[in-house]
Amino acid sequence: EAQVTQNPRYLITVTGKKLTVTCSQNMNHEYMSWYRQDPGLGLRQIYYSMNVEVTDKGDVPEGYKVSRKEKRNFPLILESPSPNQTSLYFCASSSTSGRARNEQFFGPGTRLTVL
Amino acid sequence: AQTVTQSQPEMSVQEAETVTLSCTYDTSESDYYLFWYKQPPSRQMILVIRQEAYKQQNATENRFSVNFQKAAKSFSLKISDSQLGDAAMYFCAFTYTGTASKLTFGTGTRLQVTL
Fold it and tell me: Is A63 touching B (CB cutoff 8 A)?
């Protein structure tokens, strides 16, 4: 089954404790992206990657890091989480060619709470 | 930069009735895609319908259809014969055509379906 998976689905942590949210897709997509969802703000892009070893900032990159060492994986790293990073996080992927190149597939979301 | 506006934070519809959700956007580009995503309580982002800007014909998917007015930069979603399972948050989203790029989302409209 074609899918985007994220782990963990729920995470409660404390300020300053480094964490990683994993994202993996099995559709051989070149493009991957992280979004955060906050009430009243919709979804906003954090970082994206056009392919392996190619990453760039989105609209709200402060406090986050990413890496793309393999095509299927795109982890989101919070080196020193703060309470304002409490949010719902989505990973998404899409092809960069063909008719479906602009159709993004979303993971199930990760609910992060930073105390 | 493009913006997407959903001016209706909440809407309500009776089962079997029709409801229209509004979306406007602002862009200087002429070639782009527009989407409606549904987010039920499970938080999964589900693609409902997509519209290519170069197509004059409005997209339809079963009970879901759009009214795309390119000159007015308007992209409303009509849900016919509403069902209880349609209750969700609905997001309008925009992306440029071409190599995969980020989705810009509106702030969402919460749809309630009543008996």
Answer: no
